[in-house]
Amino acid sequence: MRARLRAEIHGPSAVRFTLTGAPRPIGADAFRLTDGRGRPVDVARVVPNTATESLLVPAETLDPLRVHYLEIPEMELRALVRRDPLFRNLYSRKPLGARIVAESTEFRLFAPRATAVRLHLYENADDVPEEALRTVEMEKDPDGVWEAILPEALHETWYDFTVHGPDDPGNWFYETHPVHISDPYALVNNDAMGKSRVWQDGPPPAALAGGRPPMEDVVAYEVHIQDFTDLLPVADDEAGTLPAMTRAGLTNRHGEPVGFDYLVDLGVNVVHLMPVQEYLHYPDEQWQEVFSENSFARDMGIDRENYQWGYRTTHAFAVESRFRSRGSEPGAERDQFRALVEAFHERGIAVIIDVVPNHTGENMDQRHLLLNFNVQDLPYHYRTDDELEHIGPFGNEVKTEDRPMVQQWVVDQLVHWVEELGVDGFRIDLAGQIDKQTLRRVMDELPDDVIVYGEPWIAPSDPDVRANPDWAWYKADAPITFFQDNARNAFKGSPFDVHDPGWAGGGSGPGARDATMWALENRYAEEPESTRGISYLDIHDNWALADRYALDEDNNGLNGVDLTAMRLAGGLLLTSAGPVVINGGTEMLRSKGVAPREEFEVEVAGGPVAFKGRDDTYNLRAPNRFLWDSLEPGSDAMAIRDYWRGLIALRLSDRGRVFRVARVPEGHYRWFTPEDRHLLGYLVGEEVLVLTNNGPEGRTLRVELPEGNWRQVANRERVDLSGVDGSHNRLPGGVHRLRVPAGSFLVWVRE
């Protein structure tokens, strides 16, 4: 075991430290204490407590808010004297941000180690600091909150802050970095890097008629606002915006419904919007300097702006300003988002949003931007190493454990989106990096019927957090519903192994059918209820399903797709137990095939920007667009869309309730497993029979049906609850030997 030193400050005369992996030195002279600038502080005494823990008493009083380091020179050990004992006890329930209360406006900002905070008010978003209408000295309360209460309603006034403090490691205060910062609680922000705006909302949208679907009923459709609306036949000032998302009456050049009407007709009961909180875009003028004449950028649709999926939140309470209709006033995006929610609610569809509370946009692409938290107090808000540098694979990691005000920020933003903007739930990005207790509190403070699921992957980068079972978690002790990647891998193969076709792609090796049965039934040890995991095939990351089952060697779904595999994959997913989520456009063969396969970097906007190719098209616009004109009668896209639409209708029908169960009873899935491992049959809840063959040849399968009349509702080409034509369109109860053609997914329901 390697020697490790860890220290914390507990007061002006108390530094507690632990030394593990080595014997503790005797005597105060074995230790060296310095401040953040390297000035030595004499050590008066070291008082042992346990075999590994001791109290170090400095010869002078220390400021617990300042930076100190403890060393054992002979052992070459050095540790930051962490301020966690102070930080973990700082908490305020005062509402942060800018709020209009009666005829006054309250401004509050949390900056616990600042020595001064100044509020600057402006008439216009692009006014420079010298043009401020006024500057207000804010006052600090005992809990680290700075506040100013002005006796007037300042709706639509622009504002920012300067935060002042000492020049210590990890500090980015105005004295050494003279920047103005925006408000992390702002309801409206001028793009990611601009000023904040005081805003007072109107009433929230009407609630979903009939209430939110319970988790077991969820059939969610993940979609990005810009991708979905980019090519819709709407006015230029509306393409790519919130209003376009719910524009009714649109058709493509073949007369087929597109956009909102298409989504409503598809039949899902939840629309899952990829990030809509204000997120990082590099300024257009900087972007265009590099890309305006670049042919690759033109082909990818990124020559005019820094397109993003949005997993780089900068202002968690604000609606993404680039999603408002062009020409409308800053703040209009909030009204337009509420109108979107209401439009879906009127059609019986819940709205959930993708949130990214595990990291922020301040440290993306190897940049260190000073937008808000980095300046307010970097070591408070983020996980850091002993040099007070950010850690984590995504530039930074928000520190929710041991930081009550960061935990509060997570809870506050989710409650705000529910109460003020009307959303029905959340998909939490990389939720595995958020500590378990914070997620438990989220679930406790949100209404019981709010839909929440997230990613369990990628543990916290801090080894102390990762090793603490009260903070770190995975599937077995998940505090929220998680993405069940085992089901994904069984149905269509791992996204990290292109040679694994999954059962839908014809896989029949040892264990392939068994894994599929486990996935259908959600028979996993970490899922005592089927609602603990949400099943899926593909999602925005990695290849689209159409590219996975492309017919050419380049895996480009634009050149043709294995329709059999697409039908089988959809059939397996939509007859599995518990909630499911569909990657928007998969049902119409949406492909990322125009994206390059290779990865590369370009210098732009003061640093590198990585383009990761077809596997991760997060900043390539063209590959993600919905090609609405591909919906042509007789086309493959229409054929798969119709098949999946029928499967969704089956799942959400009365008979489909057998799949929508929170806990799968013993024997709920009764299996028919002949020797040929390309064949699989299952009777679900004594109400639905499924027979499927992923092999190259037709086979006969023996089944035993309960009493009653059984109507076939799915064959190789169609799914129709009223019945499909076929030799076995109607079956009585009893034993049957049924022909299952190659590459088929057949379904009967008991009438």
Rg, nearest Å: 29 Å
Number of strands: 35
Helix content: 10-25%
In what range is the share of β-strand residues? 25-35%
Main sheet makeup? 8 strands, mixed
Q: Structural class, from secondary structure content?
A: alpha+beta
So what's the overall shape?
globular
Strand order of the largest sheet: 4-3-7-8-1-2-6-5
> What ranges have pLDDT less than 50 throughout 5 or more consecutive residues?
none
- How many helix segments? 16
**Gap between N and C termini, in Å?**
67 Å
- Overall pLDDT confidence: 97
What distinguishing features does this structure have?
eight-stranded mixed β-sheet; 751 residues; globular; alpha+beta; eight-stranded parallel β-sheet
Give a verbal description of the structure:
This protein has 751 residues and is an alpha+beta fold. Helix content is 18%, strand content 25%. The protein contains 16 helices and 35 strands. The protein has an 8-stranded mixed β-sheet with strand order 4-3-7-8-1-2-6-5. Strands 26-25-24-23-22-19-18-27 form an 8-stranded parallel β-sheet. A hairpin with a 4-residue loop joins strand 7 and strand 8. The radius of gyration is 29 Å and the shape is globular. It starts with a strand and ends with a strand. 49% of the residues are buried.
